[in-house]
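Deliverable D2.4 — example input (structure tokens):
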């Protein structure tokens, strides 16, 4: 009986390993589970240290350090182009496309100092993760209460100037794995106009060559982040916001379309720490590679 049990216990990890290597959907599930576990574990372990400092944007540095290793686990190579455009001295508003939770990997790659994201209020209720977000100064809005959200944004505009704060907004307002961008919410643009600060648009390339929840596929691959030229808002007033929103969206949509046809060759792949990138590069569009970036 004991021998049987021992054999069973030995076979279980072996079977799991075999399944992991042979079944891309199983690999996908485990990789997504690990992503979430990593976030919960680091938030739980590190938030008490951040709590000594109290709520502060400086805690973003801890949050960033905790999330930076993720790309190595998954063998995701990040290529960034135009990073010098983020080296503006004062406050500014970043607007970025939002595909999935994986965006966190791109965010930590490029997010400048003293920058906080605007996030949905629901994140506050994620236990220690919500606590970590609150401690790091993340700004929460209730998307279902427009007036309250607008008030938070107005308040943020004055804080930005006073405290030299940068703000990161996902103007689509929700995750969008689709091939084109959703219409933009106007909050980020009102914020920039109210604070009279520049807007820096950022586009993260589509993940479909290595990540697809629909197909349950998560392999290694390359992600390109393009920082577009900043847009000045000095002298603009609230009546200019619709046009401003549309012109920034247009520039981002064009960049996204261009990046969607870019190909990431096999030699660009990193070896993931979490096993082989089984499943290959299915579904990746073929074309010219984006060589403008510097890899780091
Ligand atoms: C060294 C340091 C390193 C640090 C490293 C750090 C690493 C960081 C890593 C990890 C952090 C965690 C990351 C978490 C990420 C989470 C992401 C999310 O949760 S995304 C969901 C939440 N985001 C949004 O929703 C977008 C913002 N939303 C908006 O801007 C909306 O506009 C909103 C909510 C304010 C209203 O939404 P509406 O659905 O009503 O739509 P509308 O069309 O925009 O507005 C309706 C009307 O209100 C006006 N309006 C909107 N905002 C206004 C404003 N601020 N002032 C005046 N009017 C405004 C508009 O002009 C429009 O009016 P008219 O049609 O033009 O007449
Ligand atoms: C201060 C100490 C820090 C310790 C280490 C912290 C470790 C990580 C902590 C927090 C990371 C943030 C996790 C939040 C990730 C969620 C991002 C996301 O994708 O949310 C979805 C939301 O946008 C849109 O929602 P819907 O598509 O409308 O549903």
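Example output (designed residues):
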């Amino acid at each position: 009986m004991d021998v049987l049990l021992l054999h069973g216990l030995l076979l279980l990890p072996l079977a799991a390993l075999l399944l992991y290597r042979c079944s891309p959907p199983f690999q996908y599930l485990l990789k997504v589970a690990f992503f979430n576990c990593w976030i919960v574990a680091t938030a739980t372990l590190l938030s008490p240290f951040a709590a000594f400092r109290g709520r502060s944007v400086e805690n973003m540095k801890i949050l960033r350090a905790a999330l930076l290793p993720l790309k190595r686990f998954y063998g995701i190579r990040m290529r960034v182009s135009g990073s010098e455009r983020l080296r503006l001295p004062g406050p500014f508003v970043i607007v970025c496309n939002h595909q999935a939770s994986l965006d966190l990997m791109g965010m930590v790659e490029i997010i400048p100092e003293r920058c906080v994201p605007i996030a949905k209020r629901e994140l506050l209720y994620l236990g220690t993760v919500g606590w970590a977000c609150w401690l790091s100064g993340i700004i929460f809005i209730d998307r279902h209460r427009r007036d309250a959200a607008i008030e938070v944004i107005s308040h943020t505009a004055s804080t930005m100037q006073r405290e030299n704060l940068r703000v990161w907004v996902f103007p689509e307002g929700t995750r969008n794995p689709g091939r084109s961008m959703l219409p933009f919410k106007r909050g980020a643009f009102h914020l920039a106009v109210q604070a009279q600060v520049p807007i820096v648009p950022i586009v993260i390339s589509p993940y479909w060559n290595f990540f697809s929840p629909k197909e349950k596929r998560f392999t290694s691959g390359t992600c390109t982040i393009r920082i577009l030229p900043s847009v000045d808002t000095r002298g603009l007033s609230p009546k200019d916001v619709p046009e401003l929103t549309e012109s920034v969206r247009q520039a981002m949509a064009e960049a996204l379309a261009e990046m969607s046809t870019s190909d990431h060759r096999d030699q660009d792949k990193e070896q993931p720490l979490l096993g082989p990138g089984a499943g290959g590069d299915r579904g990746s569009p073929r074309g010219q590679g984006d060589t403008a970036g510097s890899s780091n």
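The first helix runs from residue 2 to 22.
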